[in-house]
Amino acid sequence: MRTVKTLYAISALFAVMMSCSKSDSGSGTTPGTPESSWNMGTYTYARGASSQSSSNVAGANLYIIQATTAGAPTQGVFSGSALTVKFFDQGPGEYTLVSETAFTAANAANKILSIDCSIGTATSTGSTLYNYASGTAKAQVTKVNNQYRVTIDNGITLNKKLDVNGGVAGALNSYSFTCKSVF
User: Signal peptide position in this chain (predicted)?
Assistant: First the structure.
């Protein structure tokens, strides 16, 4: 009798968990498109895990979002990616992308954002780091469920900054980059 009750309790718990699970597509997304993703050239990366942190830098609230991909490598040497977004927290709204050198505490009163992206992180053959160097691009920062999300709809150019362990074979010097609801 005790075994039957235990099995019933486990079955009920499983049914509740499955009925409350979140849909893969998320609201307002195209079927098959991840809710949170980014593109480097023709490669699409879906967010697998992420973290958000903030710290006080010279009296300004520096906010950092770090996102990585998950799952089995499916894009050869380009498999796996890691994304880092930094901004001085001015709340939701439109932020101007700036280079790493322009991203300083002296500019913290402005809505500025810096971004870099590594590709090839799921392989043992090397990875390549890219960052935003110049231009007049904008990013949309929103807040959902107390988490910041960053979207860049219009393609920006990320330039190669660093090759790790020889880098990604065949990686270009720059790629067009967009992101959708990265958190």
Answer: 1-23
Whole-angstrom Cα distance, residue 23 to residue 158?
A: 32
Contact 106, 98 (CB under 8 A): no
Report how far residue 140's alpha carbon sits from residue 92's, in angstroms, rounded to the nearest whole number. 8
Cα separation, 14 vs 10, in Å, equals 6
Angle at 153 between CA 148 and CA 159, to 5 degrees: 95
In the block, residue with structure tokens 């991203």: 103
Q: Which residue has the tokens 């979140």?
A: 22
Q: What is the pLDDT of residue 33?
A: 52
Point out which residues pair with 160 in neighbouring strands: 130
Q: Regarding beta strands 174-182 and 147-164, do their DSSP bridges make them parallel or antiparallel, or are they unpaired?
A: antiparallel
SS3 content of the chain, % helix, strand, coil (to 5): 15, 50, 40
* pLDDT at residue 4, as a whole number: 29
What separation, in Å, do the N-terminal and C-terminal C-alpha atoms of the chain show?
47
Q: How many contiguous H segments (helices) and E segments (strands) does the chain have?
A: 1, 11
Specify the length of the chain in residues: 183
Q: Which two tokens stand for residue 150?
A: 């960053």
Read off the amino acid at residue 59.
G
Tens of pLDDT, residue by residue over 50-93, are 999 999 998 999 999 999 998 778 888 999 999 999 999 999 99
Percent above pLDDT 70 for the chain: 82
